[in-house]
Task: inverse folding
């Protein structure tokens, strides 16, 4: 597994743990009515689990496991993956923090957060698609890199 | 595919079927309105699909396909994933029963059941993350072979 996939998959695992923790707090509030603010974590729970954990895990595994571009193992432009990684996690953080912070400080000052989160999600999707698209290949004989000393 | 991964994936398939039955009933109820309290099953439907199906499928495939931990213990400590499997499924089934009942006829015991379901699912995901975390790595270094040992 390449370094970039290790980081993406580990971030997804952290988001799995975080997302389930947020969901557990919201469910405990639903059952026991301990602190009404905990219910605002429900939207954060959805963003962290669906985008931060599941989508991110799929992207990390895809970067690892999709066909390489040549027999030397080239995975293409990994800068796009890093841009996607940063944008996706920035978007998740903004989207997840919006509802709980709004409940604490009021809505008008934080209205830009979901808009910025949406823009970051768009950047993340575009970057991952741009990287992965070329690697969705039919089964084929991949040309070996040319070696000058190799006899024909 | 080894036994533990098969158990996770087959259980996920059962939840996929169960969630589609519940989802079908909810859709039919929207049109035919044969039961008011049935609408309380909506969060159960979402969680059968995302926890029972998606999370369990993801974990089953990850346990199967992630790089082996070492030659001696390729899957690490399998007990972690078994305890997680028990906690995830018992927590999810407890929730599937307690949540609609709590919405229909609230009772303190049902509230505590929801809290217990939350804690069981939380325990499960932390254990699964603990089981998978050390396997997010590059190529495993093979152990030195004993003299005369054959490669498998």
Result:
């Amino acid at each position: 597994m390449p370094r970039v996939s290790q980081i993406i998959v580990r971030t997804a695992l952290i988001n799995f743990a975080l997302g389930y923790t947020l969901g557990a707090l919201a469910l405990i509030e639903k059952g026991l009515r301990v602190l009404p603010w905990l219910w605002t974590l429900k939207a954060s729970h959805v963003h962290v689990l669906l985008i931060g954990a599941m989508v991110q895990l799929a992207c990390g595994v895809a970067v690892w496991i999709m066909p390489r571009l040549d027999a030397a193992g080239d995975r293409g432009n990994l800068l796009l993956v890093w841009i996607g990684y940063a944008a996706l996690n920035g978007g998740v953080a903004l989207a997840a923090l919006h509802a709980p912070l709004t409940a604490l400080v009021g809505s008008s000052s934080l209205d830009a957060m979901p808009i910025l989160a949406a823009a970051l999600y768009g950047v993340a999707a575009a970057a991952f698609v741009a990287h992965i698209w070329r690697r969705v290949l039919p089964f084929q004989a991949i040309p070996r890199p040319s070696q000058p000393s190799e006899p024909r | 595919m080894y036994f533990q991964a098969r158990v996770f994936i087959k259980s996920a398939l059962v939840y996929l079927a169960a969630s589609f039955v519940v989802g079908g009933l909810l859709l039919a109820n929207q049109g035919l309105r044969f039961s008011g309290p049935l609408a309380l099953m909506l969060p159960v439907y979402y969680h059968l699909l995302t926890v029972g199906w998606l999370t369990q499928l993801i974990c089953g495939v990850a346990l199967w396909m992630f790089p082996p931990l070492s030659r001696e213990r390729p899957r690490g400590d399998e007990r972690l994933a078994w305890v997680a499997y028990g906690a995830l499924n018992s927590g999810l089934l407890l929730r599937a029963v307690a949540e609609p009942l709590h919405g229909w006829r609230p009772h303190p015991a049902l509230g505590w059941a929801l809290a217990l379901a939350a804690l069981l699912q939380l325990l499960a995901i932390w254990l699964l993350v603990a089981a998978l975390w050390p396997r997010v790595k590059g190529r495993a270094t093979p152990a030195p072979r004993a003299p005369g040992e054959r490669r498998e």
Summary: The first helix of chain B runs from residue 3 to 32. The interface with chain A takes residues 50, 54-55, 58, 62, 66-67, 95, 98-99, 102, 110-115, 117-119, 121-122, 124-126, 128-129, 132-133, 136-139 of chain B (CB under 8 Å). The two ends of chain B are 17 Å apart (CA to CA).
